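Hi everyone, sorry if this is the wrong subforum. Our group has a chain we'd like a structural model of before ordering constructs, and none of us has done structure prediction before. Sequence below.
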Amino acid sequence: MTTLALLPLVSAARGVTASSRTQAAVQNRIGVAPNFEARLATSINVVRKRHGLRCLRLVPELVRSSDSHSLQMARGGFFAHESRNGSSFNARIQRFYGSRGYRYWSAGENLFWAGRSIKPNQIVARWLASPQHRAILLSSRWRVMGVGVVQSAHGSGVFRGRAVVVITTDFAVRS
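Answer:
Right subforum, don't worry. Here is the predicted structure as tokens:
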């Protein structure tokens, strides 16, 4: 089992309903952004195709993993691959996109946060400018991904009360 996680830069499948995700987030004054998620997934696939790589399918399990982590970071005011309880990103991803019954399982994750005026293509451009994020984004091993984007009008903790977008993009393969 191989896992990758990188943090240095500020990782819209329709099996998960936008309304159920939004309902839970609204209770905490944080909004899930499914349209932004879809646009970011498209931007990722445009770049992958431009580099001769296969496009990645969005899968509900990884969307739930990504949404869960973005919501947790936005609510908790922290920014890290590890969950608030200290569990690793690969443990979180496995809870949603398990490895049981497969010979091979691997996952990677890119995270990002910025002001709410950021655009999906700008996020991808920043990941491409970071050697570690670029390696994850352009890995030929991935087959599927999940994108979780939340917006917070007044982010706490490391977000210092600013309006922010918090993004988790999970990549995986299992066979």
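For your construct planning: Residues 20 and 32 are 10 Å apart (CA to CA). Residues 34-50 form the longest helix (17 residues).
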